[in-house]
Amino acid sequence: MIDPILPTYNRVDLVFERGEGAWLFTKDGERYLDFTAGIAVNVLGHAHPHLVAALTEQAGKLWHISNVFRIEGGERLAKRLTEATFADTMFFTNSGAEALECAIKMARKYHDANGAPERYRMITFEGAFHGRTLATIAAGGNPKYLEGFGPAMPGFDQVPFGDLAAVRAVIGPQTGAILIEPVQGEGGVRTASWAFLRELRALCDEKGLLLILDEVQCGVGRTGKFFAHEWAGITPDIMAVAKGIGGGFPVGACLAKEEAAKGMVAGTHGSTYGGNPLAMSVANAVLDVVLAEGFMEQVQTTSARLRQKLAELKDRHPAVIAEVRGEGLLVGLRTHVPNTDLVVALRAEHMLVPTAGENVVRLLPPLTIGEEEIEAAFTRLDAACTRLESGLRPEAEKQAVKGAAA
């Protein structure tokens, strides 16, 4: 008999009653260190008092009115985001997938408005994850997400991540845009070099293409800058954001330059809930914190400290940890053992982490963690690695160490 909740998730048998900062608590009072953060969503941790106050205040005033009317909180948020980014305008959504859908439609509409509707194709990259809609699974190109849903939506050409020659080779008269995650999260915490992003920007300018960035996971301070592309010193034409922008409340946005958005006139796109007063109040509260003076510098300091401890962890456990990768507080541990084994071992140590591609375990803590949480994470990681080493057969351990030294 089917479960009342559609069984599309392999859920862990844990129920949490409340959270505080980087910690989650079960009904029995067991405490878990949360380095999943809702998969890079809870940038300010659980129950952040400023976010709680903003949501509570707005809940007593107005929840939903639809986009038929002006929403002052959305107007304020849009103004603040345009002042803090490359963007001139934006469309508010409920999720990252919706923000990517908007970005894809916007890119196609741009070329249509320029009299070139045939330029609908988009170059994307192997290992990408852009969402679960029909368009975004086609953009990602991952067979496991495409299987069983019929012919993939046309218009996407995947090339190897970081391969500029491959990008150039696939550009044709129907190509209209390039879509890339500056740091692939689901794909294994793989960073596009800042030089590669600069090359893509130059190529788009040369060929009349739009550069679209997916910063759903790597944006909103996760890498130590407000958005990851700032490290490369470039600006996109369109950018999809979500996750951290709502700090745990469902909020997404598609940001764009005025020229890129020229085709998106009244009636071309819409959302019932996107930009609702509750979401806007929380997102504005998130910006109050992450755009405050010194916040990004603190994230950079914290991430440097965490990376030091992870380097020590790798040295201690070369049979388990093969590589430490990522940017800021979007960190990946590529493992010699199955990544799911490390996830389970960490759960036994009361620490929560998600997996990623390329046999990687992700560390996605709140951006507000400090020395206490870093030490707690190291202690749990050390214990989990020791636990796994004790279960490795000598020959397997020998091979793992040999591979780590290669």
Please give a handful of descriptors for the protein shown.
4-stranded mixed sheet; 39% helix; disordered C terminus; alpha/beta; 406 residues; Aspartate Aminotransferase, domain 2; 17 strands; 13 helices
Question: Could you walk me through the main structural features you see in this protein, from its secondary elements to its overall organization?
Answer:
The chain has helices at 37-40, 49-59, 72-84, 96-113, 134-140, 143-146, 164-170, 194-207, 277-290, 295-316, 339-348, 371-391, 394-405; strands spanning 16-20, 23-26, 31-34, 89-93, 121-125, 156-159, 175-180, 183-184, 190-191, 210-214, 238-241, 252-256, 321-327, 330-335, 351-352, 355-356, 360-363. The chain has a domain at 50-290: Aspartate Aminotransferase, domain 2 (3-Layer(aba) Sandwich). It is globular. By secondary structure, the chain is α/β, with parallel strands linked by helices. The model is unreliable at 393-406 (pLDDT under 50).
